[in-house]
């Protein structure tokens, strides 16, 4: 039993690290291309695909190290664990990015948001209300919390399907 725990922790750490580093690489590519403040479709597609692949591979690696057996709970634990490690790494990177690499990030992002609202022909009252709400959600603690919750939610959904595909119990 102790061997399973050690194996699951190392798998979650390894694959979580890979996923976190892949996510950072995507963000760095956007930064180098000058697309930091743009919502681009390829970022979401690539990030989602990498998440699926790494959670699947991590869960499969656990199953292989566990004599080919994988319970539903174990599969969810592995996948969500990978997502959690990845999310923590990403939050650390985001804080470094916003505080040292691009210290005006939140101010610039708020300006991008304001411009988007203007382009949507919102009234000045609607824009101000939306901007006030956006400012309330822009603190480092809140953005970190949302990033972790998002990573865990996505990890849970991917883990659910991955586990259903790979689940194999004692016969």
SSE diagram, text form:
Elements: H1 2-32, H2 41-65, H3 72-101, H4 105-119, H5 124-136, H6 140-166
| Secondary structure category | mainly alpha
From the alpha carbons, calculate the radius of gyration and give it in angstroms. Answer: 19 Å
Query: How large is the share of residues in beta strands?
Result: under 5%
User: What is the share of helical residues?
Assistant: over 70%
Largest sheet: none
> What is the terminal-to-terminal distance?
19 Å
Number of strands: 0
Number of domains: 1
Q: Estimate the mean pLDDT confidence.
A: 92
Low-pLDDT regions: none
Count the DSSP helices. 6
Give the overall silhouette.
Answer: elongated
The ordered string of helix (H) and strand (E) elements is HHHHHH
Describe this entry's structure for a reader:
With 171 residues, the chain is mainly α. It has 6 helices and no strands. It has one domain. α1 runs antiparallel to α2 and α2 packs across α6. The protein is elongated, with a radius of gyration of 19 Å. The protein starts with a helix and ends in a 5-residue tail after the last helix. The model has no long low-confidence stretch (mean pLDDT 92).
Summarize the structure.
This protein has 171 residues and is an all-alpha fold. Helices cover 82% and strands 0% of the residues.
Keywords for this entry:
171 residues
């Amino acid at each position: 039993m102790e061997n399973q725990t050690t194996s699951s922790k190392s798998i979650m750490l390894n694959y979580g690290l890979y996923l976190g580093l892949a996510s950072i690489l995507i963000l760095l590519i956007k930064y180098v291309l000058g697309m930091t403040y743009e919502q681009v479709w390829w970022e979401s597609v690539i990030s989602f695909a990498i998440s699926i692949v790494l959670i699947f591979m991590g869960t499969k690696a656990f199953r292989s190290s566990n004599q080919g057996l994988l319970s539903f709970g174990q599969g969810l634990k592995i996948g969500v664990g990978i997502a959690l490690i990845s999310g923590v790494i990403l939050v650390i990177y985001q804080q470094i990015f916003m505080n040292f690499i691009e210290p005006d990030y939140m101010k610039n992002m708020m300006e991008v948001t304001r411009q988007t609202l203007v382009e949507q022909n919102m009234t000045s009252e609607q824009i101000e209300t939306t901007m006030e709400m956006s400012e309330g959600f822009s603190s480092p603690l809140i953005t970190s919390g949302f990033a972790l919750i998002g990573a865990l939610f996505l990890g849970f959904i991917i883990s659910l399907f991955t586990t259903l595909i790979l689940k194999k119990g004692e016969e």
